[in-house]
């Protein structure tokens, strides 16, 4: 949608409108590497639990750019001193921060063993990519500056904290966006007020002390979104199944019984030998196509797992604390008696639960990067958030992992399984 010769605008469910005035940013949006993000789900397998949660990394990336743009406008409007020469760099880094996500986003990082930030930087630095060429049109070395912001090594820490910190544009957008898409209220907070109470202070992003309750609402929203959406047992069941499918396909390749690979980059993906061009050819559709082919594979495990994922026949779950681990061998044997290989049909999934990196009493020292700082203008003093906020002290110390056991439903319903757990 176009408003004028110099302005482009996207209609957005979170921000209303996303404005683009810089032709460089417009060119970046239209590169093939950026457009690829339209074909990658933001929330991986979460749509199994929340059918609306199938929005893309592309919309989130635009949203992060827009939040950075609004931050900069607020800094200027309020007359704050900050390095204006880095405004374009901050907006572009926000736009490109998730460029390296692969199929199903975070869900596959455990399979590949490579974080998306590594791929983002590789795409930005590679001279053959359209992204690199557009960035270098700004000036020699500009692509490297963007890469350093994403790597958190750029010399200006304020710019880094706007993109990656405890109160950054990335988190501000994805919490709101994921909440809107999934139809839950847990992730809602007053984004406009948070941007109003933010300000640059030397090398860091701080918030005015009067805005403490607004920030508390944001951190509580993050806490509830992790429990109710990101760590939802059905979401995790989908991701667990996704992992087991790819692990089985990888095992078959290693064993010399390679399944049909309908995409030329799949073999390199499964064996961990991906070149950048191969990685960029992968998206969610690539894996869906593979699963459609594999559901008819001669290997019964790969065929069954692929069909389960496509048809949403997920494993059943139950809470599985460490104290029950002595029962795992018996559970695996029960799984085997039902005709399943326990290596693929008896999975313990553990998820961490860090909602605020630093908290009062932590062994870590609070830094500009791992803490939220309240600014007392009258006394020219900074105070770390959790030291004065009882709600944040409560959630910040909630670091226990979520552990669940996933097995096929018929195993879960087997009376022998229930008797096995009695008294535990």
Name given to the CATH homologous superfamily of the largest domain: Hypothetical protein af1432
* Chain-averaged pLDDT: 91
Secondary structure category:
alpha+beta
Q: Strand percentage, roughly?
A: 5-15%
- How many distinct beta strands? 10
Main sheet makeup: 4 strands, mixed
* Form type: globular
Q: How many domains?
A: 2
Helicity, as a percent range: 40-55%
Q: Which segments are poorly predicted (pLDDT under 50) over 5 or more consecutive residues? A: none
How far is the N terminus from the C terminus? 60 Å
What is the CATH-assigned architecture of the largest domain? Orthogonal Bundle
CATH class of the largest domain: Mainly Alpha
Look up the CATH topology of the largest domain: Hypothetical protein af1432
Q: What is the tally of helical segments?
A: 22
Order of strands across the main sheet = 4-5-8-9
Cα gyration radius (Å): 23 Å
Plain-language structure description:
By secondary structure, this protein is an alpha+beta fold. The protein folds into 2 domains: 2-230, Hypothetical protein af1432; 233-314, Growth Hormone, Chain: A (Up-down Bundle). 50% of the residues lie in helices and 11% in strands. It has 22 helices and 10 strands. It has a 4-stranded mixed sheet. Strands 1-2-3 form a 3-stranded antiparallel sheet. Strands 6-10-7 form a 3-stranded antiparallel sheet. A hairpin with a 2-residue loop joins strand 4 (198-201) and strand 5 (204-208). Helix 3 (57-77) packs antiparallel against helix 4, helix 3 packs across helix 10 and helix 16 crosses helix 17. The model has no long low-confidence stretch (mean pLDDT 91).
């Amino acid at each position: 949608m176009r408003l004028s010769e110099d302005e482009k605008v996207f209609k957005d469910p979170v921000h209303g409108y996303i404005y683009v005035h810089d032709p460089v940013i417009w060119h970046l949006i239209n590169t093939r590497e950026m457009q690829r993000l339209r074909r990658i789900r933001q929330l991986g397998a979460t749509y199994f639990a929340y059918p609306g949660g199938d929005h893309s990394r592309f919309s989130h990336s635009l949203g992060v750019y827009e939040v950075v743009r609004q931050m900069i406008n607020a800094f200027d409007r309020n007359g704050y001193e900050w390095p204006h020469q880095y405004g374009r760099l901050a907006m572009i880094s926000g736009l490109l921060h998730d460029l390296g996500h692969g199929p199903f986003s975070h869900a596959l990082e455990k399979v590949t063993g490579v974080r998306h930030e590594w791929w983002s930087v590789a795409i930005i630095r590679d001279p053959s990519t359209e992204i690199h060429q557009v960035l270098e049109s700004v000036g020699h070395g500009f692509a490297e500056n963007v890469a350093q912001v994403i790597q958190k090594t750029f010399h200006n820490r304020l710019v880094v904290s706007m993109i990656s910190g405890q109160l950054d544009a990335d988190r501000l957008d994805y919490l709101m966006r994921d909440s809107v898409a999934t139809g839950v209220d847990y992730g809602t907070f007053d984004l406009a007020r948070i941007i109003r109470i933010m300000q640059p202070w030397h090398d860091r992003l701080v918030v005015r002390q009067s805005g403490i309750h607004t920030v508390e609402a944001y951190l509580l929203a993050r806490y509830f979104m992790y429990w109710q959406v990101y760590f939802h047992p059905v979401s995790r069941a989908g991701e667990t199944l996704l992992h087991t499918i790819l692990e089985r396909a990888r095992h078959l390749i290693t064993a010399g019984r390679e399944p049909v690979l309908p995409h030329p980059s799949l073999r390199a993906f499964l064996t961990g030998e991906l070149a950048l061009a191969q990685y960029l050819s992968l998206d969610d559709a690539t894996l869906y196509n593979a699963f459609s082919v594999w559901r008819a594979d001669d290997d019964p495990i790969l065929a069954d797992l692929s069909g389960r994922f496509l048809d949403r026949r997920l494993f059943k779950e139950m809470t599985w604390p460490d104290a029950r681990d002595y029962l795992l061998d018996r559970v695996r044997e029960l799984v085997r008696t039902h005709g399943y290989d326990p290596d693929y049909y008896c999975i313990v999934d553990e998820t961490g639960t860090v909602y605020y990196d630093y908290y009062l009493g932590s062994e870590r020292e609070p830094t500009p990067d791992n803490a939220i700082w309240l600014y007392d203008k009258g006394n020219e003093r900074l105070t770390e958030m959790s030291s004065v906020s009882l709600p944040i002290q409560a959630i910040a110390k909630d670091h226990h992992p979520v552990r669940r056991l996933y097995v096929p439903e018929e195993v879960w319903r087997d009376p022998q399984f229930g008797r096995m757990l009695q008294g535990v």
